[in-house]
Amino acid sequence: MLPVLPIRYVEPVYRPPSEAQSLILPITDGCSWNHCRFCEMYTAPQKRFRARDEAEVLASIQRTGEQLGDGVRRVFLADGDALVLPTRRLLDVLVAIRTYLPAVRRVSSYCLPRNLRRKSVDELRELAAAGLSIAYVGAESGDDEVLERVNKGETFASTREALDKLGAAGISRSVMILNGLAGADLSLRHADNSARLLNATQPEYLATLVVSLPPGEQRFRDGFPGWRPLSQQQLFVEMERFLDRLELTRTVFRSDHASNWLVLKGTLGADKKRLLLQVRQAIEDPDSAALRPAWARGL
Hints:
The protein has an eight-stranded mixed sheet. A two-stranded antiparallel ribbon has the order 2-3. It folds into two domains: 1-110, 2-Layer Sandwich (Transcription Regulator spoIIAA); 138-290, no CATH class. It has nine helices and ten strands. It has helices at residues 54-68, 87-100, 121-130, 144-149, 156-169, 187-201, 217-223, 232-245, 272-284, and strands spanning 23-26, 28-29, 50-51, 74-78, 106-110, 132-140, 172-179, 205-210, 251-255, 264-268. The longest helix is centred in the N-terminal third of the chain and has 15 residues, at 54-68. The model has no long low-confidence stretch (mean pLDDT 94). It is α/β, with parallel strands linked by helices.
């Protein structure tokens, strides 16, 4: 039986797929931006953005340490963008993790690029030295028109600046791009400019998901007139274009989220030719490409 942790959770709780074995530690609730037209993660009334009370967070860390001892190796700072907090508060959290959860070897967080505008590289270096290991940055696209249409509140330049700051500070960057986000008309521009963003910043990790809008497609369409979803084959064509234009040297690439029809894994650029071959096979002969069945996509 799983232990009842001394941490207050506000459902639903989200975390990156790679943080499945991590302790989820909320230090904020919701998302400080929360205007992206494609995202329904933090729209529930109970998910209104707020910073958690500092005393509550620090007490939760201490009590968790007393309960689990050296059993925690990874911590994910929730919710949508914990790095919005002032550097001093983040340092207090990281020091408490180091003090009460001494076996922790990795601390991670989601990160909106906008929330690094007021943080210097030196501040980020302090956070890295205190234990912040990796930031998950939902870039979604490198194309400014697409970003504007989906109300992301970011641009190519603002996302690049944030990724460059994190890299200069020694914090690993995991970047997410949304396959299909731009719709049919802007698909190839989306692929080209997303690749351009990644080539310019050389992140340590890259993931792609397929955009899905089950509860909120009308809201998305209202802000993106003329948007047409991509067919399965068009998704593969966009992915082929994206991969073909990537010039990465040591980026771990994953396209294995439940939303993806075609599972792709490798390191770019060592595995670029193999990955392109897989995508081209899916375009030319999807029946032989070992695609994920529709019922397993979890959408």
